[in-house]
Design a protein that fits this description.
The structure is a single chain. This protein is mostly helical. It has a domain at 16-93 and 116-127. It has helices at 15-21, 26-35, 38-48, 52-59, 69-89, 122-127. The longest helix has 21 residues, at 69-89. The chain is globular. The relative contact order is 0.19.
Length: 133
C-alpha cells in the first residue's frame, strides 16, 4: 500500500490534491465524495481537467501491475476525477445524486482493496465510449 502521496515531478502542481483525493480504494474515494463540498468538487475538477489528457498519456506507459508508486498515486487521482466529475458537470456540486437512492447503500464488492486486475488501463479509460441502453 502506498503510504505517501507523492506524484511524478511533472505533475507536482497537483500534489496539494493528492492526500484528499488520490485514495487507493473505491470505497475510500466514495467516502471522500460523500463529504465533499461543492467548492471542493469544483477546485478538484478545475485543477485536474486541464491536464487529464497529459496524465492519461503519462500513465499509459505503464501496465497496472508494474506502475511505480508515484504513478499509482496519479492513477488514483485520475480515478477520483472520473468518479467525481458528474458531481460538477451534472449535480451542481452536490455530493448526493439528485432523484436517486442514497449512494452509501451501494457497496462495491471489491471496493476495499485496490485490484489492478479488475481495472481498465489508462488507454482503455481514455478510449471508453459508453453505449446507450
Amino acid at each position: 500500500m502506498i503510504e505517501q502521496y507523492g506524484l511524478p515531478d511533472r505533475f507536482g502542481q497537483l500534489e496539494y490534491l493528492a492526500q484528499r483525493w488520490a485514495l487507493p480504494t473505491e470505497n475510500q474515494r466514495s467516502a471522500r465524495r460523500w463529504v465533499a463540498s461543492p467548492e471542493e468538487f469544483q477546485e478538484f475538477y478545475d485543477a485536474m481537467v486541464p491536464c487529464i489528457d497529459e496524465i492519461l498519456a503519462y500513465l499509459d506507459q505503464y501496465s497496472l501491475e508494474d506502475m511505480p508508486d508515484d504513478a499509482s498515486v496519479l492513477f488514483n487521482l485520475s480515478l477520483a476525477l472520473a468518479e467525481s466529475a458528474p458531481h460538477v458537470e451534472f449535480y451542481k456540486g452536490a455530493a448526493k445524486v439528485p432523484h436517486s437512492f442514497d449512494a452509501r447503500r451501494m457497496l462495491a464488492t471489491r471496493g476495499d482493496a485496490p485490484d489492478p486486475n479488475h481495472a481498465m488501463s489508462p488507454a482503455q479509460l481514455a478510449a471508453f465510449k459508453p453505449q446507450p441502453p
